[in-house]
Amino acid sequence: MVHKSSKRYESDYLIIGSGIAGLFAAIKASEFGSVIILTKKSVTDCNTMWAQGGIACVMDHDDNFENHVTDTIVAGAGLCNIKVAESIIQDAPSRINDLLDLGINFTRIRDIETGISNDKKNDYDLGKEGGHSRRRILHNGDITGKEIMRVLYNACKSNSNIEIFESFHAVDLISSKRLGFSGGNQCLGAYALNSVSNSVHTFQSKFVFLATGGAGKVYLYTSNPDVACGEGIAMAYRAYAKIANMEFFQFHPTCLFNPKAKAFLISEAVRGEGAILKIRDKDKFVDFMKKYHVLGSLAPRDIVARAIDKELKRTGQSCAYLDVTHHSESYLQKRFPNIFATCLSFGFNMSKDLLPVVPAAHYCCGGVHTDINGKTCVENLFAIGEVGCTGFHGANRLASNSLLEALVVSNNAVAQSKRMLNDRVKKETPKKSDDVIPDWSSGDAVDADELIVIYHNWDEIRRFMWDYVGIYRTTKRLQRAKTRIRNIRKEIEHFYWDFTITADLIELRNLASVAEMIIDSALARKDSIGLHYNIDSPLANESAELKEVVLQRPETTRVSS
Ligand code: SIN
């Protein structure tokens, strides 16, 4: 499997990842130049495809931007960047208009209810989720992500300025610092493995947008699809970008508890429509959430996930239950068609049966440190969507704020790149550097003799991350995790340098790197706050220093990729 000869490609924009952030940025960027999108499987293999809840946006006269900002900051345990939150929330209506212009359908009240007055018929059906004080979530039933992907993908396919490379797995960013070029650290493009032809190609670009999504696969149980390995975060770290807030990994409280369901998500919107969490205590099903928070089953997600975990340990049960039986079958089928059908396929009729649920890893609130425009500290490198960390989510993301952030920051990033291009024209573009980007070299690498190393390490990481770095943490468990990841990382690095790369090896290397960043950040944070809950650390109070934990790769001498 030695790599075949490689090709070189050039574009104005190189976008790595094909979820909402990548495709929306591509559509916007195509107005200013040529765009290449790299995606490691097919375009629709992304987290966005699975988004059920929707997009939070102030739409109703009873709501306002201040309410949405306050809810975001309360959920984020005070660690949100307030200016960023205000800016994203105020920009939401314009970005929603962009989606409507592109042809995205959001559910209207008339699609769900009958006998409504004429003046309400065209209104959108606004959903509610944990931590939101108002109804403000635009959705398309419970397949909002699928609808978004349908429209954005079609728009990209029919755009002659956009070229999509499927089965192209980014291996590493090409950064001037790693190549030893003079001047500041600039991102010049990326190397990518075509996993069908098994060849590594060079993609050179004026701007690189990381839009690789989340990292849920770092945990044993996750609502994320298999592609979510945190690769953009790992690549950015290797290119000397700053990485922030990695200790804040969000666990979704309600994934279907069934060995065959692969942590299928039961949207928080179901609780928004009145579903109650219950625990089996002896022979009764008890509503327990009021004990933990005034908002009961609709408390912010970190609180609900911890409460479930605690109740499971107290009662010795293996799952909690979601009770939405107060709604009729016909209503549930209209409002949650996908969840209804999926639960039924596992033998649960939502209108009659309690749904067994457990928490699972869901969303990485940390990521590549950026400003409101997705700009990283590496020149020409942007991070947009879940891979980035603007500070919007703070210590815990408010439900349905992530698709919104992806839209706003992608749009801002393109606008920022345009400003940078204009500045360069004004300043007269400096003479092109004589430095030549080398082709990818496999060196003396040979094909791996024992693939079991990859699969064993993959399993081991995900298991100890779940057991030691999960919903409840202790310092001892974190230290145990650190010792293990250090050893595994060494083994993987040897493997990486000695053997020809494969898609599995790239994923494992990145997953291990992200796991280590989560552990290091969790060890560095001294208070328990939001999603980071260490039993040995005091709860952060108002006087606590609420600084971000930021990681950056130390300078090293190894410069090749
Ligand atoms: C959900 O539908 O519960 C997930 C929405 C989100 O994570 O924002």
Helix content: 25-40%
Q: What is the residue-averaged pLDDT?
A: 93
Identify low-pLDDT runs: 557-561
CATH architecture annotation of the largest domain = 3-Layer(bba) Sandwich
**Helix tally?**
15
Strand composition percent: 15-25%
Task: Report the sheet with the most strands, covering strand number, pairing sense and barrel closure.
Answer: 7 strands, mixed
Would you state the CATH class of the largest domain? Alpha Beta
Tell me the CATH topology of the largest domain: FAD/NAD(P)-binding domain
End-to-end gap:
19 Å
Radius of gyration: 23 Å
Bound molecules: succinic acid
Total number of domains? 3
Helical/strand content category: alpha/beta
Topology:
Layout: E1 8-16, H1 20-29, E2 35-39, E3 55-56, H2 65-75, H3 82-102, H4 109-112, E4 137-138, H5 144-157, E5 162-166, E6 168-175, H6 176-179, E7 187-194, E8 199-210, H7 231-238, E9 243-244, E10 249-256, H8 268-272, E11 276-281, E12 284-287, H9 301-315, E13 320-323, H10 329-335, H11 337-345, E14 355-364, E15 367-369, E16 381-383, E17 388-389, H12 402-426, H13 452-468, H14 475-498, H15 503-524, E18 550-551
Parallel strand pairs: 1-2, 1-8, 2-5, 8-16, 15-17
Antiparallel strand pairs: 3-4, 6-7, 7-8, 9-15, 9-18, 10-14, 11-12, 11-13, 13-14
Bound molecules: succinic acid.
Residues 52-53, 267-269, 363, 399-400, 402 line the site of succinic acid.
Observed structural traits:
alpha/beta, FAD/NAD(P)-binding domain, Flavocytochrome C3, Chain A, domain 1, Methane Monooxygenase Hydroxylase, Chain G, domain 1, 3 domains, seven-stranded mixed β-sheet, five-stranded antiparallel β-sheet, 17% strand, disordered C terminus, binds succinic acid
